[in-house]
Amino acid sequence: MQGRWLIAAMAAMALLTGCHRQRPAYGHFVHTPTAGWTATDTLCYCVTLPAGTLPDKQRSDYRLELCLRSDSRYTRTGLTLQVVQQLDTVSRRRVAFPMSDKRGRSYGSGIAVRQQRRQLAIVSMSPEDTLRLRITPDIEPDNTLHGITDVGLLLTRR
User: Fold this and answer.
1) Nearest in space to 63 (alpha carbons), one of 134, 123, 152, 133
2) pLDDT-derived band at 61, boundaries 50, 70, 90
């Protein structure tokens, strides 16, 4: 009898913790050029909150994450991206993605295409705001990156 209660309690806890995960308010991926990503190729994002996300003129905090997808053609051990973010002010930062360890094992999740996430910032937005981002690879101008397939943004309410 006690075993049944224990199993029921564990099942209820699993259901409650599984339902807690927040769905992104915004999620969008942009493909990099198929011929390879160069230092002059800029990926641009204009992020607005979907209608009905928040009541008019109300602000809320969101976690902004940068996502990177790569395939087996990417042979380097890391990648740094330059991110220019504009909401109320303009900020610039470099975001590092370690791609593999010293033994060549890839980081991230997935099989054919690996995906990694990095938190960029916590932003406070209202439905009237537009968050603009520009992303470029931090590489020499004459280099071309092969194997980076997509770069995306996720915005999740805190």
Assistant:
1) 123
2) very high
For residues 102-111, b (16+ Cβ closer than 10 Å) or e, as one string?
Answer: eeeebebeee
> In this model, does residue 60 exceed pLDDT 60?
yes
CA distance 129 to 22: 21
Percentages of the chain per state (helix, strand, coil), in multiples of 5: 10, 50, 40
Are 29 and 69 in contact by the 8 Å Cβ rule? The answer is: yes
Torsion of CA 72, 74, 77, 78, to 10 degrees: -130
DSSP helix/strand/coil, 73: coil
What is residue 48's DSSP assignment?
-
* Pure H helices in the chain: 2-19
Q: Which helix (H) or strand (E) holds 153?
A: strand 148-157
Q: What whole-number percentage of the chain has pLDDT above 90?
A: 58
d(CA 75, CA 78): 9
**Secondary structure (3-state) at 14:** helix
